[in-house]
Design a protein that fits this description.
This protein is mainly alpha-helical and 105 residues long. It has one domain. The protein is 79% helix and 0% strand.
Length: 105
Amino acid sequence: MREAILLVMIVAAGFVASGLIAAIYRVLSGKGEYALKPTTEAGRLAAVGLTIFTGPAVLTFNALKADQSGQPRAYLMIVIVVAGLWSYVLGLFIVGLAIKLPSPF
């Protein structure tokens, strides 16, 4: 049971971090949606780095938007599974980083 709760917390941490980074990008860029169009090599590299961290939230948001337009349910389920696995990996990174940092308390 403890492992299941830990799994859910790690996935949630990854998804929350992804959504937070995507929201910060949208606010700072002034764009209503997540659309990267880099023109330089440095911009492309930054876009890949940003997509690694914002992927689960953007993927889920786009799948839910497409679900309203009549996509098959299997598409939504596959996207949710992929976003969940991606969130797990991202959550492991976030939790590992939080453990390594010294506590301010």
